[in-house]
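Much of the work behind modern protein science is quiet bookkeeping, done one molecule at a time. The protein below has been through that process, and both of its lines are reproduced in full.
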Amino acid sequence: MLRDTGTQRPKLRRYEVSYLSPDGEVVQKRHIAPALPIFEDAFCAFTRGSLVETDRGPMAIEDLLPGDMVVTHDGEVQQVLWKGSLLLIPGQPDSRGRTHPLTRIMADTFGMQKPLSGVIAGPSARILATPVHLRHLAAGGQLLTPAHEFQDGMNVVETLPPTPVELFHLCLRRHSLIRIDGLQFETYHPGINALRMLGQSLRSLYLGLFAHIDSIGDFGPLLLPRAGDGEIDAITA
């Protein structure tokens, strides 16, 4: 179990959060928390300028606020409850030697206007699609796959900018797919086993990032199975 004691303390990172208060006001807060994958993944899906389909048309993710309505995969609209962002340098290794590569997806890679003009996805972005080498995991069904799994050196490529990049993620009332420049990306969900390896103090710190939930179960079920690290993060435990 990963505990927040001992000599190997992770680097700290600044996380920016905005959410809806009970009376409908947008509240903005800054958190200082460890630069651990479970924390960073909640903030690292979409780059500045990513165009999210809303009920008022495409909107840059940096302009989107809690309370705005986004169009989901089923044609319905859902309210944004939470938005997180952070600044990081993708090409700079952290204290554990990890970099945070972005994935550039060229226009029409997944079909006509998919994406429309090109997308740069963050390290935690997942797309509704299955690459050939992961079809054995999908078993003929649909799969949410990390964007980097599609890198082929031509239409989908890794990029490691040496300067700071602002990254974002969104929470809706339930795990959903939203359309960004013609591609369907998942909204944030930590996964069913996310907190299993965290000690109590880190668990509380993580949950404190999300004012709209009280426990991990409040994220609800996963919409679809997800690929990650060669395994399936299933809908049910």
